[in-house]
Design a protein that fits this description.
This protein is an alpha/beta fold. The chain has 2 domains: 240 residues, 3-Layer(aba) Sandwich (Rossmann fold); 163 residues, Jelly Rolls (Sandwich), CATH 2.60.120. 41% of the residues lie in helices and 19% in strands. Strands 1-3-2-4-5-6-7 form a 7-stranded mixed beta sheet, sandwiched between helices. Helix 4 packs across helix 8 and helix 13 packs across helix 14.
Length: 457
């Protein structure tokens, strides 16, 4: 209960001390909007998906809703549930509410993720021509009854209009998801709130205000959205140049249902989630308590993190997996696949090669010791697919903790952000060159010492 208003919240995945992600659905919808993304987001956040007043299981507000009213109510909810800023996700009208909240209460929002957000409040021509008349009828009890009756007859317009409005022509969405989205859109008893929100969106025009938003934001837009037109994306591009705006091909108004992997990849990269580009439920479980900001701070003093900004380090930190090793324990073996890059977080890592003596025996020789912040495995990674390791890696006498980066996830990040990929590859190359210089110097020093000993004898 917030300010006398009952709010239903889907809150199945709370983790103690985890940062909160507040998810706000759009017009004629419910918390179900976020179903595909909850498993991914729950790897890092305590997810709270609300039913806005008048939708889903939340009772209607006592007064006609406004975008500002919804935004202020969600701000009070944040103050109630969290002692720190939250990550705010909004879809469609929920995006308009999220932006309004951020403009009015910037101290409450750490990051924004918006999917097809309403900006101008003017929905598509298709909506205004074919749906608006039905919405206007819903203002009146008798009009809602007529529409409800028609939907149970061959005269129903829902099936003919829903898919062209919501989904791209070539998008794939399961029949179960479609039926639930359709049921939310036509939930009985919500006609009046739908009509009121249709007008509220028009009055909540955000054009001319976006430039005032300083909160880091990712804005995803289905390129074939026939509900919130791409002219609204144009306002984002023109006014809000700091926002990371991404258009998703073959997606309409529900990109997280229609182009799931692409949506997840962008979100994982922006939020520093540990899954990119595909879900691995075992890894998600292992990484629930990973302190991404702490790892990002550590990366600033590593060979890999040189010259990267905070946002870039956060993206990399979200891909890391922490592995502790006992003294002498093998981390990786020579001539094995170089699919992982290692960054020493604590302790030391010994780099050993196998040497064949004149008598045919084999011995291991330590050629280098890596300390905190140094990188191992970059040579195999730089070789690309099929790269092989050139040395054994073992934890030193005091043990070691390393951060492991899977090359598949790292290269997927490069695809999403080529400039970041270039910086990382430059850092890896610089690290490798420095390592080779040191090893060459050590080899030359050893040869000189051997010659001195020979002369003395």
């Amino acid at each position: 209960m917030i300010e006398g208003q009952e709010i239903h919240i889907r809150d199945d995945n709370r983790h103690q001390n985890a940062p909160i992600a507040l998810l706000i659905h759009g017009w004629s919808s419910s918390w179900f909007t976020w179903t595909p993304l909850l498993p991914v987001l729950s790897s890092r956040y305590a997810c709270m998906a609300v039913d806005l007043p008048g939708y889903g299981r939340s009772p209607a507000p006592p007064q006609p809703p406004t975008i500002v009213g919804y935004a202020d109510l969600m701000a009070r909810l944040i103050e109630e549930i969290s002692d720190r800023p939250v990550v705010l996700l909004g879809h469609s009208m929920g995006g308009q509410i999220s932006l309004t909240l951020t403009l009015r209460h910037p101290e409450l929002v750490e990051r924004l993720v918006l999917l097809n957000p309403v900006i101008s409040g003017r929905l598509s021509t298709f909506i205004n021509l074919f749906i608006a008349p039905h919405i206007l009828l819903e203002r009146y009890r008798w009009g809602g009854k007529i529409l409800s009756y028609l939907e149970r007859t061959p005269l129903s317009y829902v099936e003919q209009l829903m898919k062209p409005i919501l989904f791209a022509e070539r998008a794939m969405i399961s029949s179960q998801d479609y039926e639930r989205i359709k049921a939310d859109a036509r939930r009985p008893g919500q006609g009046a709130i739908r009509a009121a929100c249709f007008e509220a969106m028009k009055k909540g025009d955000l054009r001319g205000k976006l430039k005032n938003i300083e909160t880091p934001a990712l804005v995803l837009w289905g390129a074939e959205d026939n509900t919130v037109p791409l002219r609204d994306a144009g306002a984002v591009a023109d006014e809000w140049t700091d926002a990371d705006l991404r258009l998703i091909p073959n997606a309409g108004h529900w990109p997280h249902f229609e182009q799931y992997e692409t949506t997840v990849r962008y979100m994982a990269s922006f939020l520093g989630l540990p899954v990119l580009p595909m879900l691995d439920t075992n890894r998600i479980s292992q990484q629930r308590n990973l302190d991404v900001p702490e790892i990002a701070l550590f990366l600033s003093n590593t060979e890999l993190g040189q010259d990267l900004n905070e946002g870039q380090r956060l993206r990399i930190a979200g891909l890391c997996h922490v592995h502790p090793f006992a003294p002498g324990e093998t981390i990786a073996l020579e001539d094995t696949s170089g699919d992982e890059l290692f960054i020493v977080q604590d302790g030391q890592v010994d780099v050993l090669v196998r040497i064949v003596n004149d008598n045919g025996s084999t011995e291991q020789r330590r050629i280098s010791v890596l300390l905190a912040g140094q990188v191992a495995g970059e040579m195999a990674l730089l070789q690309g697919k099929g790269g092989r390791r050139t040395a054994d890696l073992k934890a030193g006498r005091g043990g070691a903790t390393v951060l492991a980066l899977d090359s598949r996830y790292l290269f997927a990040l490069f695809d999403d952000d080529p400039s970041l990929g270039l910086k990382i590859m430059q850092n890896l190359a610089r690290s490798l060159v420095q390592r080779l210089r040191v090893q060459t110097w050590q080899l030359q020093l050893a040869e000189r010492r051997a010659e001195d000993m020979l002369h003395r004898s």
